[in-house]
Amino acid sequence: TEVTEKLEEVIVIWTKQIRQVLVESEQIRREADDVGPSAELEHWKSRMSSFNSLLDEIKSSRVKKIISILQAARSKTLKQWKELDGSITIAANEAKDNVRYLYTLDKFFGPLASASPVMMEHIPSLMNTVCMIYCTSPYYNTSEHMTSLFLKITNQMINTCKTYLCEG
Fold first, then answer.
1. What is the rounded distance in angstroms from the CA atom of residue 90 to the CA atom of residue 70?
2. Where is the Dynein heavy chain tail domain (predicted)?
3. Is-above-0.90 flag for pTM?
């Protein structure tokens, strides 16, 4: 029972740490007013990396051994652990899926950032791709995500036009 108690203490500490990561990941991002759409892709790539690292750690043999010992001891701490494991998996899947969809926009970011208002020829294709993301993505099709993306696209267009006007 002494070993079980020590392992339960470890699980409680891990649970608190994982909860903190989940809470921080859901907080509103603070970004500069003029940040472009590539920042959205970078955000999700970073989030995907963080959650995948956390998943790798959770699936490590060391953690699996501790979990199996606590399962054999019928520890009550495992209920919370399983819920958190599921939450981390969902967050990792969301980030991975969002990166996959946002990469379809990546080809538009260069022309959108070029210092010429000729970018207008790319807008219909860009909007069709955004529409496809909204219609097919199981995670990215929320008003918060789409608003953030449209804001960044608009920021980039404004910055590109400012640059063009100042150079011309």
1. 24
2. 5-166
3. no
- 36 and 112 in contact (C-beta within 8 Å)? yes
Contacts of 83 (CB under 8 A, 6+ apart): none
CB 109 within 8 A of CB 157: no
Which residue shows structure tokens 């649970």? 15
Chain position carrying tokens 């054999």 = 72
Q: SS3 string of 75-128?
A: CCHHHHHHHHHHHHHHHHHHHHHHHHHHHCCHHHHHHHHCCCHHHHHHHHHHHH
Residue 147: C-alpha distances to residues 84, 102, 111, 144 (Å): 29, 14, 21, 5
Distance CA 14, CA 133 (A): 35
Low-confidence stretches of the chain (pLDDT beneath 70): 115, 118-119, 168
Q: What angle do the packed helices 123-136 and 143-167 form, to 10 degrees?
A: 170
Both tokens assigned to 45: 């790539």
- pLDDT tens-place string over residues 4-36: 889 889 889 999 999 999 998 888 788 888 888
